[in-house]
Amino acid sequence: MNKRMSLPDKGIVKAELIGCLKNYKQDDADWRAGRSWSLVYYAGQEHTELVKRAYNLYMSENAAGPAMFPSLRRLEAEVVSMILNLLGGSGSEAGSMTSGGTESILLAIRAYREQARIRDPGNTSPEILLPESSHPAVLKAAGYFGIKPVYIPLNSDFKADTSKLEELVTERTICMVASAPSFPHGVVDPIGEIGRIALKYGIGLHVDACLGSFLLPFLAKLGHEIPAFDFQVPGVTSISADLHKNGYSAKGASAILYRSRSLMRHQYFIDIDWPGGIYASPTIQGTRPGGAVAAAWASMMALGKSGYLELARRTSEATSILVHGIRSIGDLQILGNPDMNVLAFTSKSFNIQSVGLRLDAMGWYVNRINNPSALHMIVTPNHMQAIPGFLADLEKACEEEHLNPVSQGNASAVLYGGTEEGGSDDVLVERTLQRLDNLFRLDADI
Ligand SMILES: *Cc1c(COP(=O)(O)O)cnc(C)c1O
After folding, report:
1. Residue 19 and residue 253: Cα distance in Å, rounded?
2. Cα 183 to Cα 377: distance, rounded to the nearest angstrom
3. 400 Cα to the center of ligand 1, angstroms
4. pTM above 0.85, yes or no
């Protein structure tokens, strides 16, 4: 029997309730101190308070009802327009806000599938071309919408290898995807070249700039060599841009942008026969949280170009100190040449995942990636304070691993907790499914 919980007989008083939440929260990552390297993007307390106030003003409002809340329609249109301007738009593009990068990508892929269904009804087994480093949201979209994924291999720089890309294009290909930058290695795919091939074959190209949209344009202004990735590149037909990452907005905010409104129309869903009236939904969500729209608008308006430029400067300063520090520890190698604030590093001398476990034990949260196995970090301005301590602990972890390698079975058993090594694919899949089941059980740890 599963452990169960029912509603309290009587509601809990406010002070006790908030105390309870604070208590629950105690074991969470202390991201404010910069000890975690993913999932939270923090531009400081003042900015966060402002975004919170904007969110609260619209917490109950629903952006699915523009007639009732014309201000939300206006705010969303202004957000979309500002992003299009940032991403090389020339005035004829279109877009909408969404709940996150995944929804943005699902909508774009759905739009390409609908476009293909109308243009080429004979194509009953559509395919999508995606780099091996694409975010799994692309694979999720392919899975949800019955599209076959065809992988573009990576070159030694961890970017999509375009040398044989044309051989992968078939009459079934409905679109291509590229990242700016990729999540695992933080490098921007050769979007100019991919765009050229997309144009040549008359196929759409979605650029996943979930991470890069609010950083790459400002790094370019700071003089970094940033490859073109946005609507300025011929062949790019849609872009996903997350507001709740480097846009420093509240969670639940991203945007999907299209070169043409006619392509965007394929993301819509309408039902004109419903007894409830004509149902017209521009995105996947029905109810659309007004708070996320208002918070995104407030974040962009509060920071402006100068604010994002300053955050980009601080981010890039922190990243280069971190990269320099990692490079100066013998035995560690950074994968490829990261284009912004996302990086992964590995080691040829020892098992890098053991170093990861040692860092866990020291209270750091770093991501893991595979093929090749590496540790992964996303840097924000807030990390500057933590970098000296992190580098010292990293060096210590590497030294300990040298003296007492976990891979040779000498280290404490605690260090093994959480490793996913060993076991067949079936075992790995079952263990992962169980982990998902456990997310929603009262009596489980993850
Ligand atoms: C975060 C991310 C996504 C998915 O966005 P969510 O907001 O997590 O749904 C897609 N692509 C890239 C490159 C990302 O970093």
Report:
1. 29
2. 10
3. 34
4. yes
